[in-house]
Structures are given as structure tokens and as C-alpha cells.
């Protein structure tokens, strides 16, 4: 069974979906799910927007935990909060920890004003440099989330990421992940675009060339219609490149069957 290892429900402020709704779609799509609510310490636009009561989360959602329903978290990494993040991760019984870049040097990548005065090349370079530096600092996570996060929001005519524009930085990022035995996520959010598919396939292919073998599949669903979305496209990329879809249970990697 394939797992949608990246979904947001009741405890993510920006999600419109409940866990019960997520379970209904997961059953329909025949995927397992890992709930990965947002946890972003010191979020620049609102320091408390993406924090929640973790004891309550485990208390309420443990009732739903099963072989197909696992409980994780998505940590928004920033260099100055690494110790706080890792203490939090250690203190809770997560199945899977996704580490993601939502900010670059205190700038929220979601906000258009974060790109003011920057060319696309400058914005992408800063994103990659900060990703490399941050991944090198963090150790206690399983999956690196959405490498194309910036492509969702950067306000340039061409929002795509091209390996050939920063080959050394992409290589550094993949090597930093592989040195720590971390798994790259294929985030399915943008896989409806042929242009994104082509560009991302080159990046995932480079991860494979550098020795990456495992990938986590995630829709990053915030709406009930999006659980398991575009998994056929993600699986096709993985199969074509020789990458194996995996998921994590009790922080241990399991290779998906089927
Ligand atoms: Zn994210
Ligand atoms: Zn997410």
C-alpha cells in the first residue's frame, strides 16, 4: 500500500479538513496516511500560528492510529530553532517527522513581499543555500519535505526550478540529505503541470544518481479532496527513476508494497 505521508488536518490552522474526512478520502483512494500537522516555531508573520497542543493531538488522534493511519509532524526548520525543534521531536512518539523549509533567513516564502528586490536567481539561490545550511544543522528527522515549495509562491514569470541553474547547490542539498540518510519527498501538489513534472523529474533523477534510493510520497493535503492526489504521477516518476516509495512507522522506514 502506498502512503500519503504528508497531510494536514484538525491541528493545522490553515487546513480545511478533519481527520475523519481525510480517512474517508484515504479509504476511497486506497492509501494509508500519515498526519503531519504544522509545527513552526517563531514563524515570522505570526510566531504562534503553527503551534498546537501536542498532548491533545496524541490524546485525540491515538484512537485512530492503526497500520494505515500514522501520526507525525511537519517541522518548519530555521537555523536558530534547531535545539528547540529537536527537543520537541525527541519528547513525542511520532511515526514520522518531515522537515521543511518554509522560511529563508526570517523571510516567509509564502509572502510576496519576501521576494521584493530579488531576481528569481537571487531568490532561488538564497533558498538553496539556506536549505543546505539548515539540513546540515538538523539531524532528527526522516523526510525532507517539498523541495519545490518556493515554486508555489515566488512571483516570477517562470516559477519553475531548473537543476542546470544551480547544479552545485542542488548536489550539495541532495548530498547533505544522503549523508544523513534522509529521504526526499515527492510532493504531488504541482504534478498536474507538465512543465513542473519535467523539471522535478530531473531533480529527483539527480537525487537518484547521487545514490538516493527512497522517496516519500506526500500530497500536502489541506482539503479532503486532496488526500492521495496525483499519486499515479508520483509513482510513475518513482518507477521510471528506480526510486522506491517508503513511509515511516515509529520512525522506522518501511518500503511500500504495490
Ligand atoms: Zn510545508
Ligand atoms: Zn505541509
Could you explain the architecture of this structure?
43% of the residues are buried. The model has no long low-confidence stretch (mean pLDDT 97). The longest helix has 18 residues, at 120-137. Helix 4 packs parallel to helix 6 (167-179). The chain has a single domain, classed as TIM Barrel, CATH 3.20.20.140. It has a 9-stranded mixed sheet with strand order 1-2-3-4-7-8-9-10-11. Strands 5-6 form a two-stranded antiparallel sheet. Strand 2, helix 2 and strand 3 (69-76) form a beta-alpha-beta unit. It contains 8 helices and 11 strands. The protein is α/β, with parallel strands linked by helices. The protein has helices at residues 19-29, 54-61, 82-90, 120-137, 149-153, 167-179, 194-209, 231-241; strands at residues 3-7, 32-39, 69-76, 96-100, 103-104, 107-108, 143-144, 183-187, 214-218, 244-249, 252-255. 35% of the residues lie in helices and 20% in strands. Bound molecules: zinc ion (2 copies). One zinc ion binds next to loops.
Amino acid at each position: 500500500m502506498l502512503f500519503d505521508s504528508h497531510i494536514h488536518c484538525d491541528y493545522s490552522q490553515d487546513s480545511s479538513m478533519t481527520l475523519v474526512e481525510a480517512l474517508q478520502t484515504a479509504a476511497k483512494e486506497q492509501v494509508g496516511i500519515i498526519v503531519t500537522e504544522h509545527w513552526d516555531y517563531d514563524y515570522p508573520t505570526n510566531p504562534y500560528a503553527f503551534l498546537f497542543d501536542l498532548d491533545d493531538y496524541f490524546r485525540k488522534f491515538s484512537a485512530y492510529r492503526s497500520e494505515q493511519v500514522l501520526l507525525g509532524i511537519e517541522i518548519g526548520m530555521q537555523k536558530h530553532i534547531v535545539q528547540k525543534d529537536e527537543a520537541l521531536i525527541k519528547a513525542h512518539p511520532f511515526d514520522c517527522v518531515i522537515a521543511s523549509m518554509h522560511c529563508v533567513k526570517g523571510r516567509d516564502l509564502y509572502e510576496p513581499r519576501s521576494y521584493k528586490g530579488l531576481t528569481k536567481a537571487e531568490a532561488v539561490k538564497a533558498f538553496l543555500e539556506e536549505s543546505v545550511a539548515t539540513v546540515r544543522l538538523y539531524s532528527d528527522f526522516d523526510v525532507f519535505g517539498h523541495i519545490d515549495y518556493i515554486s508555489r509562491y515566488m512571483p516570477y514569470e517562470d516559477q519553475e526550478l531548473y537543476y542546470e541553474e544551480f547544479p552545485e547547490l542542488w548536489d550539495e542539498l541532495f548530498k547533505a540529505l544522503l549523508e544523513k540518510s534522509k529521504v526526499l519527498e515527492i510532493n504531488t501538489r504541482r504534478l498536474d503541470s507538465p512543465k513542473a513534472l519535467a523539471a522535478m523529474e530531473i531533480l529527483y533523477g539527480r537525487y537518484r544518481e547521487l545514490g538516493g534510493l527512497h522517496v516519500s510520497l506526500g500530497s500536502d493535503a489541506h482539503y479532503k479532496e486532496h488526500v492521495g492526489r496525483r499519486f499515479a504521477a508520483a509513482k510513475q516518476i518513482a518507477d521510471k527513476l528506480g526510486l522506491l516509495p517508503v513511509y515511516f512507522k515509529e520512525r522506522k522506514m518501511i518500503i511500500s508494497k504495490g
